[in-house]
Amino acid sequence: MGTTNVLVTSIGGPVAQGILKGLKEMDDVRIIGADRRLLTAGNLFCDKVYQIPRFSDFSGYMNRIKEVIKEESIHVVFPGHPMETELYHEYRKQLDIPVALPESPVYNDLLDKEAVYLHMEQYGLHQYIPHYIGFTTNEEFLHLKEQHFPEETHLIVKDVKGYGALGFAIVTDRENFLKAVKSGNRKVTSVEDYLAVTEDTRRILMEKLEQPEYSVDVFVHDGEVVVAVPRKRTGVSNGLVLDGTIEKEEALLEATEQIAGKLVNIGFFNMQFMHGKDGYKLTDVNPRFCGSQVMSLGAGVNFPKLFIQYAVLGETPVSEPIWGTRMMRYRETYFVRPEDNITENNFEDTKKTVSLKRQSSGLLFQPTTASFYSVRHLTVKKSGSAVSNQENSESKDQNDRDIETVGPVSKKRAVFQVKVISVNQWIQKIDENEIE
């Protein structure tokens, strides 16, 4: 069909930028970006950018989106913000082009953690459901805590429609809370403090599961799993994965096969799991592209491309991940100067100027979001020798900071900008939650 015109929204955020990275790997694709801000870090990935109303202005937002779709002859839309998903689900039939959200007869329920568990119970998938109870008021919370979790020192509370780290809390008694504060663990709160700042909304109370957390990116077609990519989340800040590894975890692949087709007919979505007392338990479903699916891109599975192939081009390829791929994130900086005078009308010409500055001066864009590079091998150079970055290998020189890649990376991208901090120092900061 020639060039595919793709619209990606909310390009200033990590979800959209992960999608954009996948699209940039494709040939014959023209990328149109949209955001409430004229200038964001996502601009550099786009061929043209539109400034549009914020999605909270439903009418103004959708009217402008329809205009962009018509003006640019858009073939497919990728919503780039979690808060846009319900809006696009509601309007997708009016747009009359594919929208990169999964198709499901129970789509609205996929946005509700409690409703997902109820559907799983109906399908007899009890083995993947953690011990949980839904509640609304703080009085119910106190009653359920004493009645159903009397021996638990730490419990998890989630808003049923929360995403990322929003609406999530680890609650405990005063004594354990003070221990957490002294140890620098900012994720734990006391029951008293939690009740003082929360309102009566629908939530679930559940057992605290064991680390690590796994995320599984899934593409489904006609109710069958085309490809599933489990990834271990070893470094997370504010719900965004900073460090993780693609792992061939057979139990997770089996769980995905059991669950995915029951919830989704066609499209990409994401599931999250943790260990319970008797195996993996589903902790969340994200019926949309998520901020860390770019890890799969580094492992050779380009989910934005896969969606376009199936939904737009009528192709039905099958991908296989490169197991063992590890991703680390870091922030880039990118500077725009007053003389650039960027507007919606002159962005394409201005982009060329900014790109030249990037190449000649080494300056990148402002650090509004993280940049993502998937690598399979890293070495730390020390006095001309190379030290492999294995768990049992450390550089003796703590001041040594030059990092280079060895082994294959993405065929169109090399990791050449990681040069500020040593690997061991970086991982230590991730473990200590110093990297936001």
Please supply descriptive tags for the structure shown above:
Dna Ligase, domain 1; 5-stranded mixed beta sheet; 7-stranded antiparallel beta sheet; Rossmann fold; 436 residues; disordered C terminus; D-amino Acid Aminotransferase, Chain A, domain 1; globular; single chain; alpha+beta; 4 domains
Describe the structure.
By secondary structure, the chain is of the alpha+beta class. It folds into four domains: 92 residues, Rossmann fold, CATH 3.40.50; 128 residues, 2-Layer Sandwich (D-amino Acid Aminotransferase, Chain A, domain 1); 77 residues, 2-Layer Sandwich (Dna Ligase, domain 1), CATH 3.30.1490.20; 60 residues, no CATH class. 30% of the residues lie in helices and 27% in strands. It has 13 helices and 19 strands. Strands 14-13-10-11-12-15-16 form a seven-stranded antiparallel beta sheet. It has a five-stranded mixed beta sheet with strand order 5-9-6-7-8. A hairpin with an 8-residue loop joins strand 6 and strand 7. It is globular, with a radius of gyration of 23 Å. The C terminus is likely disordered.
Q: Which range does the strand content fall in?
A: 25-35%
Which regions are unreliable across 5 or more consecutive residues at pLDDT < 50? 352-436
Content-based structural category: alpha+beta
Q: How many strand units?
A: 19
Strand line-up of the largest beta sheet: 14-13-10-11-12-15-16
Please tell me the total number of domains.
Answer: 4
> Helical segment tally?
13
| The CATH superfamily title of the largest domain | ATP-grasp fold, B domain
Distance between the termini: 43 Å
Rg estimate, integer Å: 23 Å
* Shape call: globular
- CATH C-level label of the largest domain: Alpha Beta
The biggest sheet amounts to: 7 strands, antiparallel
- How much helix is in the residues? 25-40%
- CATH-scheme architecture of the largest domain: 2-Layer Sandwich
pLDDT averaged over residues: 81
